[in-house]
Amino acid sequence: MRKVLGVGQNNWRFSFYRYKDSNYYVPSVIGLIFLISFFLIFYVIVPQLSNWFSIKNEAIATRKRIDIIKGNINFMNNLDRSVVNSQFDIVTSALPASREFTSILDVISEAALNAGVSVDDYSFVLGKLSAEYNDDIGEDGAGVVVNNDELLPITLQVTIGGDAQGTMLFLQQLSKKIPLSGVIEVEKNFTNATLDIEFYYKPIPDIVFEDDKPIEPVSDEQKRLISEISGWKPIFSSEDFVTTPTGSSSSAPLF
Amino acid sequence: MKNNINLLKANETTKVSKLTRTQRILRIIAVSLLFVVSSASMIILVLIILSPLPALREEEQNARLTLENAHADLAKLIVVKERADSINNIILNRKYYGQSLEKIFSKTAGVSVGSMDIKSKTISMTLSSSSLLLLDNFLIDMVETVEQKDGFTKMNVVSITTAEGSAEYEMEIILEML
Fold this sequence. Notes:
heterodimer, A: alpha+beta, Alpha-Beta Plaits, 2 domains, 4-stranded antiparallel β-sheet, B: alpha+beta, Gyrase A, domain 2, 4 strands
């Protein structure tokens, strides 16, 4: 049924017909359009635009990450695994991940053999057992000051028989052997010398892979170092030494 | 139609008004503004919908999965680099007593080294010789070495003695290393 519009009836339709030809109607409509437009600009357009810019920036950043990851994939595809494995073996021999007493004794034996001295006695001091060790070995200038709080020492006190020249040769030999060591103290009398030697080990840290960061290859300096220390590996292992006494009645080889 | 036959009294507020020039301009501006706002909103919406971000994210995810297969080798590479730095640090910072002793022993012709004590930065040693001249030559050479700062910064002669009934001279020195 059609609704009858009565005179004086107070509703929108009546108001429209009542005021559509008035002087206020057009300015009111224009003002309303302006208001709506500004509302749309500040509450719809600006947030949408901001959203679009952030999407655009995110797309650019994602594209960059993809390029880096693809570069990393390419790098890893071209990586010579055998070289990396070999380098890994060398560096973990030089700085083992755990206490490797056999390697230490191999170094001592071979250094003594090459220096022409005999190893009379030795004892291990394990030192701190956690990674809290903070390189305080260098506080009096002795040992090694390494800016790495995960480096752990094993102190070995070893007595070698021989003259001063032999002690010097032993120290020189020791500095060119891996696992790496640092001599803390030497006390020598006329017949033998007692040395405090620190060997180092470093647990392998938790590795966090950051795929979106470019992989840095082993630098030339690092390659040169690895190549240099690769020749420091003891030639003989402990199994190669024969446990026969030497000419000295008071001293015997370590193995 | 005449006003006098109009049954309703003429109302000033409801009379038909003509749009002024300003109102026309404002109306055009308002409508244009509304059109621009609507169009801009639509364009931005389309741009957002057509964004390559979802496809890029998927591509990134796939690339990460591919690289994950190489993580074992990558871990080795990281360890190699990290160890190489630590090794370099050890090699650069440890004491090379062997090399210091070599410098001393290269000057000990005719002089024998008895006891020796190396601690931190100092080497103390006892030298003996049957000739004071040889000990003197040793001292002259060592003083030169210290002056040139060639591995040593300071040398102290603690004592020079001779044992009763012996033809040997004994000298005790303390050297400070660089």
